[in-house]
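One record is kept unedited as follows:
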Amino acid sequence: MITGHAMVCGVIGNPVGHSLSPLMHNFYGQALGLDYLYVPCHVENGRVEEAVEGAFALGFTGLNVTVPYKQQVMSCLADLDDSAKSIGAVNTLIRRGDGYVGYNTDADGLGRALKEHGMEIAGRRCILLGAGGAAKAAAYLLMREGAESVAVLNRSLEKAEMLAREMNEKAGRPLMRALPLDGWRQLEGDSYLAIQTTSVGMQPNAGRAVIEDRRFYEKISQAADAVYAPATTRFMEYVEAAGGEAINGLDMLIYQGIAALELWNPQVKVPWVVVAHVRQMLEERLHG
């Protein structure tokens, strides 16, 4: 039940009409009996600072931030968490006395999704496909959780080199190396954990994979694709055809939202049964 004392949160972006966050968060509020409301907030270009100040004046407990404002919003905040500083982007704001503090829950969402499916990072040789914003969150997670090594494969070698250099500095060791997409042929052995962070294979351009050579997939034993529509991407099909295990990005989406909810409500822990209900609800919404 929503009362005059309700905790109000929301998501800012442009556009926001496609966002699944209101559906997820309002379900959590109902399922957990919280006095909680989550609303979508369309913010026009150039008005991010006004939006943040307005939300603070209106008493919003927190906000999620989606494209294209994950970097722009950083200059509007009172402080940044280590995750946001390391990733260089913010997707969650938490109200403090003098303003909002910026966090990034993308890495935690990916980490929880991997653990849910028994995919451990510590001590693993890893492959990271992509070097954009999602890749940076994944790279931060792999560094934080103790990967043995990470090969960053990207169409632009320069971008891959920038990401690898930045994460190696944070790790204090040569953890990551940058390679062009066809550089996978230089990788020795197999049983890699692979994380696919590019938009290749996403609807409406399903049916493609960032690397089409099936020999590449023989090196992978476990994989996660950040894409969640379609439910089974071409990347996943290739991994599974080569005998590996693959998951899509839906659980990453769910768990990054849960991480934000739990930051806003430190006393709340979302139980597994609620997660299962949300997963089913989103699958029906996305895939019919």
Observations:
- The mean pLDDT is 96.
